[in-house]
Amino acid sequence: MAVTKEQVMDALKQVYDLEVGFDVVSLGLIYGVEVDDENNVKVRMTMTTPMCPLAGFILEDARSKVQEVEGVNSVDMELTFDPPWTPDMASDEVRKILGL
């Protein structure tokens, strides 16, 4: 059974940045998801700031949630700060709640 990008994104919606209280997808922290023919998943993501004290926890939680998707073989997490995250990357709902 082929794993889809949508399944991976649904799993990532369960990963929260506890400092801000929103999931990493709604915050716009996911820059890309690739699934190859062998169901190996690569997730490219960022944090709201390079100094995020929860970065290690969030990355491991994301890896764990994606690994739980039925059929996923392996998960490669790539942390990047290029381009840097800005509040404009968050969903309209998050920006409205935060007053941005």
TrEMBL record:
Pfam families: FeS_assembly_P (PF01883). Residues 5-76 form the MIP18 family-like domain. This is Aromatic ring hydroxylase.
